Amino acid sequence: MSSPETWTHPEPREGPAATAAAPTAEQVIAGLRATSEGGPELVQLLTPEGERVENPEFDRYVADVTAEDLRNLYRDMVLVRRADREANALQRQGQLGIWVPLLGQEAAQIGAGRAMRPTDMAFPSYREHGIAWTKGIHPKELLGIFRGTDNGSWDSNATRFHPYCIVIGNQVLNAAGYAMGQRFEGKVGDDDGEATMVFFGDGATSQGDVHEGFVWAAVYDAPLVFFCQNNQWAISEPTERQTRLPLYQRARGYGFPGIRVDGNDVLATLAVTRWALDACRHGNGPVLIEAFTYRMDAHTTTDDPTRYRLSDELEAWKLKDPIERLRVNLVRHENADQAFFDSVQADADALAAELRDYCFNMGEPPIEQMFNNVYAEPNPVLDAQRDDFLAYHASFGGEH
Amino acid sequence: MAAPAINKPGTDSAGNTVQSLTLGKALNLGLRAAMEADPKVLMMGEDVGKLGGVFRITDGLQKDFGEHRVLDTPLSESGIIGTAVGLAVRGFRPVCEIQFDGFIFPGFDQIVSQVAKLHARTQGRVKMPLVIRVPFGGGIGAVEHHSESPESYFAHTAGLKVVSCSNAVDAYWMIQQAIQCDDPVLFFEPKRYYHSANMKAEVDTDATPMPLFQSRVLRQGTTATVVAYGPSVKVAMDAATAAQEEGKSLEVIDLRTLSPLDLAPVYDSVRRTGRLVVVSESPSEASLTSEIAAKVQQECFYSLEAPVLRVNGFDVPYPPAKLEEHFLPDLDRVLDAVDRSLAW
Question: Which stretches make up the Transketolase-like pyrimidine-binding domain (chain B) (predicted)?
Fold first, then answer.
């Protein structure tokens, strides 16, 4: 558990100030190490070697997790990774305009997502393919955004998974408002209470809206879990460009608990998120979770991380791979055999094939789509513009 | 909950309830009526609770409806708008008060990025029935950021609707209609007339109001057409009265709706008068008045006897208060524009 009271001011840095135009690679790595200090405060239930470690505070939140549940968590992560890799490949084939890779963040998202109940609302950023999966959204429903046919096709009311947010940090305030509404409606206060989760990255913590979201959720005791996936890089800007102290410790300044969990440990993430959601649904106000993880691929398919980070860093994080550590644990405790792993792989391949076929057959969106649903009520100015353009288009026989 | 008796309501010959109200009090009663009609309607903003807002427009609402329906919020415009988005997703109908026009910009991103787009982004599944109330315009001798006219920014953004009231009767009805609207509405209120005793009007609270997104011919005339909205409507009407003494008959149209623009009555008028002067306090470059001028020349080209002329604030930051009388369109500048049009 975090102990903000014991935190002291960070030691002054040696060497160039953080405002130096171009820090060396070594300085960047050093900066990452500085903000990853506090090892004992990192909640971890599975070591990178797959060993189960006891945690008196959080074990009880996963005491009911069976071997089958662990296998399901493993399956979730493998399928989500396979879908992510397929979408990445589809972008490379020119089928998608861009893709936002998830690689490396499967445990953070599956652990957090599986802690939610169907009544809990999720506000994602734009890399939350794993959260979407746990909300029952098929990966193919994400493709339209990146192929350019729509802005996301799922029903955000029915799934309780808000549309992806492209502007950094906007959704944090939107989530705070939604959670305030849950509280105003009296949906908090006992085991059946509702809660909201909002997902954002380490880079977003520099945005004013995230700060404002902290303030609002705190002063209104909103049942909101702030789930920050600190994947170490905001495109090419390292965490040290966002903060001088571990991000979870910011919660202290706003008056609610902050905690850092090993985001590559699906079991620990599940436990910590269940604890946080439980606190929210009982009406105890917001919680900040910093899931300490790593983006193992590029920011998006337009990005080239070899320009700004060392391959050594990537290699070091590969040893903490979230899927491998659960696989080792399952094997070590004989909770899964080769037939299970083979079946998961077969399911993953089938999912990828389904995704590929769907992508190839998506077709072009109808032209009138862009005019639809701009307004809920009639707008004669826009209606006239649509009618004029559709008539113009039709005058070419639909070929223009 | 009964409305407090500010003015003792009377009844007209048809038995309807009629009250003589200032524009600000009409808004207050309109907000109260909306809150009584729908428990999902919330007020939120800085100082809107105990204080009743810096202009007292929400006076008494928190006392009667409670702190969960009238929220004294943190000082955070992006927070007000951004959380209103989430509340709207949840099924509430938030009414946000921005304290002054020039303070809306910290919330601009939420308005144009989320408020305006969520309905389209969700294929119509998520509605954004929120209202953002903005006291706007100058003439109150305030310091900077307190007198601006930012409405054109919002009229430029698809997904938003923008309206402005100019009198107590419209204020009472339009605020209720905006709250009932399933689209997000930017609601611009002419702050300098909030408490003007000489702007009081008889508000018939049993009447059937005209539709929200419709402009209105306030005064018929034949010499030239003058179009205005918000605080400029009074300037236009005063100009028409003065012009009459010179034997000129001005037709005055209150736009009321800025997005979507209802220009049909303007086209009709210009086809009869052949001349148009558009009045607004906002700077003229790339503004609503530009849009009106462009559309009128497109629709009424063969009817126009002169170019469309505009009387705007200048393209400068809103000046210090001692200069604002020169910045703001006044009766003389409107009459001068009419004369220039007639001299063409």
Answer: 21-195
